[in-house]
């Protein structure tokens, strides 16, 4: 009876004591929580579209601390780490009694510390709350913190904290930073030798730094490999082979790709720790190497900027703001992809596109390249010579100035600027000036990004395309009117695809154009294949002249090298739209065989106003029309030259809905077969063609 009573009293007392202790520990835990928020600060990372690291920024303390989880690390490394540092990590509650007892017995037996008893939880406690010196009090506090951490975090979270915070010498913290600094790679695939070194370094990170104490680092790695062989985490033969592997003797720089874009991402959202971009690291690496090598050959103070974008989505896949961000002699910190500069001749293709669209010319139309005076404006060719009579194709491929100005005078500078606005591009005119003929030769300011955006629309069959900013802005097609009609865009691309490659470069199947600004200040080259457009700018950021700098001689070779080093295979250019054909000069309508405009904007090949002439579709053409996404027949472009507006079009004798003052129109056939198209001008003159529609 008494013994039962004593037992009940004892149990009750123990329960009360346990409750009091638990309550006291809980109060202490709440009153003095572990400073886990200190572990929250990690380096800001800028990643490519596939999640690969482009650039990292040090923490406010100047440390490279990359957030790391067990999923980011080779599983073999995790097994070796736990086997070496904390074998019962998954079982204990923050303190390993077995390890504590073993360490105490070894200390009593040997009079010195033979092995430690720190668990990974205790090491995390020390890392988030460093203490000066090693004392019994500090150890007790570490034990208490380990218990607190275990109450708050899961084992996986504790392991992730260690992987992010473990010291590796200098300002390196965490396995990812160490792997990148010593091996130049992410820790997802580590060799046994590399894993053993990363397990060994955090115990004495400064003394064992391989870039300073190679022998100590090698000895520490050897002890880890020996233990792993004993514990059968790795085989003996594997451990021996790993011990023969060389240890890196220098520390590498962490990735610094896309420096300007990374800076922009951090400024845009400074609180975000991981910025995802649309860039592709392989492309970025190649383009940066091309820019750096090219600038080195071009001389001091010269910089290079490059943008590569996906024509189908508008996403920027590679962007180089300068030849070298850290080169002060080249003002490398200036992002030259966003600076307005004179584009030289790179806007000429859009002038020709409007002329094609209006039916003023075909590729084989003859145009004069002779001295001309446009109300006091006298353009001259780059080499101060003239070619005489040339075809439109030759004029654009040779980038002749006088023919381009003749066409711009016909289509209108204001209309050209309006087309640019359709692509959300607004070139900057000189102060207090309206659009004039000089814009065709570079008399405006435009950024490399905007120029690439214009060419993306040209490569996209004339549909304007909005480029993203490489960070968050959503790119894509711009709704509304086209930059150019598909047939006109194809004609321009077809001509540009025939431009000779620069010296030393092989033919790559791209369409491209070059440009040189006045005074040899800017050299440009923009080109595209079926999927990607790439733009290059070369010059001095301070706008100084560079003697001999030209688009063809300097920028074009960088363009071709950029396509080659991007790692992206060339895709064939867009096929010709249905019904589009190349017409020989002898087969052109008389009104399209030679281009010559008078001050009234009319063909001046005769002494009086010419009669209307249908220039597209040509007589007897066989036309295959595709279907829209809704399944409807695509419209056929109708183009005329000459005549007096307004114009009335008829298809098989039936008038089209409206008269028009423009020399272009559209007709949707009722079905296939032969059709007769007729146009009548305001004074009753008519022209007809007979075509077959498939």
From TrEMBL:
EC number(s) from the headed UniProt entry: 2.4.99.28
InterPro entries: Beta-lactam/transpept-like, Glyco_trans_51, Glycosyltr_51/Transpeptidase, Lysozyme-like_dom_sf, PBP_1c, PBP_C, PBP_transglycosylase, PCN-bd_Tpept
Record GO cellular component, one term: outer membrane-bounded periplasmic space
Pathway recorded for this protein: Cell wall biogenesis; peptidoglycan biosynthesis
Penicillin-binding protein transpeptidase domain location: 305-523
Keywords from the named record: Carboxypeptidase, Glycosyltransferase, Hydrolase, Multifunctional enzyme, Protease, Transferase
GO biological process, one term: peptidoglycan biosynthetic process
Glycosyl transferase family domain: residues covered: 52-228
Annotated TM spans: none
A Pfam family assignment: Transpeptidase
Family that this chain belongs to: In the N-terminal section; belongs to the glycosyltransferase 51 family. In the C-terminal section; belongs to the transpeptidase family.
Classification via NCBIfam families: PBP_1c
Protein's name according to its UniProt entry: peptidoglycan glycosyltransferase
Organism field: Phyllobacterium bourgognense
